[in-house]
Design goal:
3 domains, five-stranded mixed beta sheet
């Protein structure tokens, strides 16, 4: 019924109707184990535990089983509510095993010592499959409720149903290499994805190839559920002030750490420098820890030529503007993902004759979109009320962290 890779290099599987656990090598040599397993246990889900054993649910026996690589079995039922029907199981980020109780409408947790805890609050459907998410939580399907559930290690449950087809019956679930959760819909005949909105994980690495005027900076970025950009900040203090970027700045979504590097040049000989790696995606920005290096003594090398930058290419997401009764206009702006350290600047709305109607300042993280509110002047409000619809110029002046500037102008309709 279920199958999982063991830490011993073999595959382990459950034999539901015969109440056995099977082991098969990659050379296809199979062994079955039944000693110690309840004859009416009906083993279903199975997962490798952090202790090297395989842990499995017993739907008929209302218990959790453990089998060592040598085939020694132990069963645990204390703490599991009667007739709960344990179903799916997975190793959690806390070193315990987490399982679904299909009939009991609960999520269970069992330590490697066999201590069980149950969580029922907030669960409205029949929990089925379960998986460990990249966010450190456990995610599960609710077969009859057409929902996906998330449970924290403390037992707090959140359910999600938006986007799931009616009567889809979510079943199996797994964490994907793109940093999201993927699940099957049994009756919906679909494969679905839950987007996990997490900022990237970052680790600042050691500096290398240090000379009197340059150094190579390194680290790792785990983009998680969305593409990510990165940059290294460096300077004489932990306030930094300079930025080193690699030519390859955008990393694809994924749960594996990606090694990144960039060169810092134009440095002073025999000087202590601070640096850190920063990464951003659509969910947020993460800064790695501060590290230092000291340039070697000697003559200062040539100042490297840096490409001319013109500032961030801000994007106006809104396609039209609406004047509210309170005299406000909302406009959505996006900072490019390549601007790892974010964008700041001003946005102004003008008439075709350059009459200023309103303005606002903004600070937006790299790869993110923000909705701003601008208060329209009394003259502007009167103009819109009289004409009902006015064609306006939206002037966005964006700056990056180094002060490089770029202006973007778009024309949009403004109406009541």
């Amino acid at each position: 019924m279920g199958i999982a890779a063991g830490l011993d290099g073999n595959l382990w599987f459950t034999e539901y109707l015969h109440s056995r656990i099977g082991r098969i090598t990659t050379a296809a040599a199979a062994t079955e184990f039944s000693s110690g397993i309840n004859p009416s246990g009906l083993p279903r889900g199975i997962a490798a535990g952090p202790d090297g054993s395989l842990w499995f649910t017993e739907q008929g026996g209302n218990s959790i089983g453990r089998i060592t690589p040598a085939g020694a079995v132990a069963e645990f039922s204390t703490g599991i509510s009667p007739a709960s029907s344990p179903y799916g199981i997975v190793a959690g980020p806390d070193g315990s095993l987490w399982f679904t109780e299909y009939a009991g409408k609960r999520i269970g947790r069992i330590t490697t010592a066999g201590v069980v805890s149950e969580f029922a609050a907030g669960i409205n459907g029949l929990p089925d499959g379960i998986a460990a998410g990249p966010d450190g939580n456990l995610w599960f399907t609710e077969f009859d409720g057409n929902r996906i559930g998330r449970i924290t290690r403390a037992g707090a449950v959140t359910e999600f149903s938006t986007g799931i087809s009616a009567a889809g019956k979510p079943d199996g679930i797994a964490a994907g290499p793109d940093g999201n959760l993927w699940f099957t819909e049994l009756d919906g005949n679909r494969i679905a994805r839950v987007n996990i909105e997490l900022a990237p994980a970052v680790k600042t690495g050691a500096a290398s190839s240090i000379t009197s005027s340059a150094a190579s900076l390194a680290g790792t970025v785990t983009p998680l559920g969305a593409p990510a950009s990165y940059a290294f900040q460096y300077g004489l203090t932990s306030a930094y002030g300079s930025v080193a970027k690699s030519r390859i700045q955008i990393l694809a979504a994924g749960t594996r750490p990606v090694a990144v590097s960039a060169s810092a040049g134009g440095l002073r000989p025999g000087t202590l420098y601070h640096y850190r790696l920063v990464a951003a995606n659509a969910s947020g920005t993460t800064a790695g820890s501060d590290r230092t290096f000291i340039t070697t003594a000697g003559a200062r090398g040539p100042t490297p030529t840096t490409p001319t930058r013109t500032g961030p290419a801000m994007r106006v997401v809104s396609r039209s503007l609406i004047l509210t009764r309170s005299g406000l206009v909302r406009i959505a702006l996006a900072c490019p993902l390549a601007e790892t350290l974010g964008c700041h600047g001003t946005v102004a709305i003008q008439t075709a004759g350059s009459i200023k109607l309103g303005s606002a300042r903004f600070v937006i993280g790299g790869g993110r979109t923000r909705v701003l509110q601008l208060r329209i002047s009394r003259r502007g409000r009167a103009l819109v009320r009289r004409l009902h619809r006015v064609r306006v110029r939206v002037l966005v002046t964006g700056l990056d962290v180094l002060g490089n500037r770029r202006a973007v102008v778009v024309r949009l309709p403004l109406h009541r």
